[in-house]
Amino acid sequence: MSSKSVLVTGGLGFIGSHTVVALQKEGYKVVIIDNLSNSSIDVLGGITQITGKTPEFENLDLRDKEAVKNFFEKYPDIEDVIHFAASKAVGESVINPLLYYENNIATLVYLLQELNKKPNARFIFSSSCTVYGQADELPITENAPVKKAESPYGNTKQIGEEILQDTCKTNLHFKAIALRYFNPIGAHPTAEIGELPIGTPQNLIPFITQTAIGKREELSVFGDDYPTEDGTAIRDYIHVMDLAEAHVKALKRLIDAKEKSNYEVFNLGTGKGNSVLEVIKSFEKVSGEKLPYKVVGRREGDIISAYADTTKANEDLGWKADRSLDDALKSAWKWQKVVRKREEEEN
């Protein structure tokens, strides 16, 4: 492992912060870039609390090309980048597509232009299983066709992967891995960091925990007429700590140059699908809370079922998701109670 620093963009966000913890636990030095548009500076304290080390932090907007250039002049030894900084709300991307193209595409280009100047740069891209749409076969392997995106957000992930591939084709010394996440949930077991959605949550788990704690009246279950066992949609829910550890494995793979090609793609999931009703039951079990919910109509753009074939990540990265759905929901509930306590103290 090199003593050089790893840049983590969006490192104070949900997945970014857990990955910073995993990197620091493995002895990596970390520099975080975050513009705090969808995160809080308090997360830095949480990372320090868990690891005993404070990563370097730069409050910087990656849409500012000059600022990106200046950053790499200030940190000339940085060759390894894990890129999380992106907007990620599907609904918002439909309403404001240009914001998503600027924030998710322009920033990627500016980072790659700087890294391209280096003799041996390595890059990990946070992609998404949204690139598969409703896959023709389950579980989904990395060879499944990429379908036309249902939203500008999904499209930015597809375009991002294409930009990376093209960069790798023209610069054989540049190495990249795209990690296609399924559904990250949960929080660090210490409850020092977790998912902090601003406004109304877009994802199921924060909505469940906010409903259970009384912040929301009831949970809406979007559709119970899907062709699944209980009629609700199925997703592959992966504990955020398992996901974070996969980034450390991917970085080691790039540094050790084990990959056959200089561009690789991996699915990150548990390999198992759970329906919305199964998630609700699991949450009620681990929390002891009864969850008020009602079934409403399907949500536009939602697919029936998606879960990963994780064989490639298991074999090539030497990684697998170890934590259970119950573990993830227990940690998410513990985190929600900490958030509530903090809110009460502030008020």
Automatic annotation (TrEMBL):
- Per the similarity annotation, which family is this? Belongs to the NAD(P)-dependent epimerase/dehydratase family.
Q: Provide the catalytic activity annotation.
A: UDP-alpha-D-glucose = UDP-alpha-D-galactose
The protein's UniProt keywords, in alphabetical order, are: Carbohydrate metabolism, Isomerase, NAD
Q: Which PANTHER family would you find in this protein's record?
A: UDP-GLUCOSE 4-EPIMERASE (PTHR43725:SF47)
Pfam families linked to this entry? GDP_Man_Dehyd
Which molecular function term from Gene Ontology is one that the record holds?
UDP-glucose 4-epimerase activity
Identify the pathway: Carbohydrate metabolism; galactose metabolism
Q: What is its EC number?
A: 5.1.3.2
**Name used for this protein in its record:** UDP-glucose 4-epimerase
Which NCBIfam families is this protein grouped with?
galE
> What organism is listed for this UniProt entry?
Christiangramia sabulilitoris
Cofactor entry: NAD(+)
Gene Ontology cellular component list: cytosol
Example GO biological process: galactose metabolic process
User: Can the keyword NAD be found in this entry's annotation?
Assistant: yes
Which residue ranges does the record assign to the NAD(P)-binding domain?
7-330
Q: How does it assemble?
A: Homodimer.
